[in-house]
Amino acid sequence: MTHKYFLMTRSQLIQLSCFFILLLSILNPIFSQVKSNSNWIYLDHEGQEISQFKFKKYLSTNQYLDIDSANYKKIIRRELRGELSSRAALEQNLEKTLNITIDSSAPIIILYYPGIDPCNSSGNLDLNYNKSQFDKVQKNVKKQFKTNALYICQAESEIHESEKLVPWQKDPQRMIEKLFFKHHYPCGSYVVIDPKGRFISYFGEYMTQDIILHTTELMK
What we know:
Blueprint: H1 10-38, E1 41-43, E2 49-50, H2 52-60, E3 64-68, E4 72-77, E5 79-83, H3 87-98, E6 108-113, H4 127-145, E7 150-153, E8 169-170, H5 175-180, E9 189-193, E10 198-202, H6 208-218
Parallel strand pairs: 1-4, 6-7, 7-8
Antiparallel strand pairs: 1-2, 3-4, 5-10, 6-9, 9-10
């Protein structure tokens, strides 16, 4: 029986070594992520540790979103209610920085864009469609509440190409972000504030009718 040996040149050995180094550099973060995910701590909306099963059960109701860091995932309510210490201060800031006039007897309706994410950069990316949605919101709030909705984006965010026809304005001094949107919620969010400073904010993907319903509720 004869044996054949495959001899590699020095150049081929170097190329093979480089290939394995590259492969390890690709796989290592993946394996690290799997390990990290298995060690996540799951928290409810009050910061109490819960099981992964209960965590997923919360999310299945569509009343919650999740935020995460390197070692935990936390549930947060999609709807938050509260009251500002001074609506007048918010009005003055918006009027000065956005060069607008706000009626103190009307609701303030803010649609907030957090920056590009997988939710708001996939699906229907038609510029005309997004512009028509903007026109629809403005028409409805103007008719029912005698005001205009404000379209405000995160101060340092980039606007996706599909949103270019919508007149997004930068968040003045990141005031809106600090008051209402402390995390990056997927797609976008909104907040409605009545003349007394009471507000309802809603995090994540929403529909025009949700804005109308919450505004109507506050203005009763």
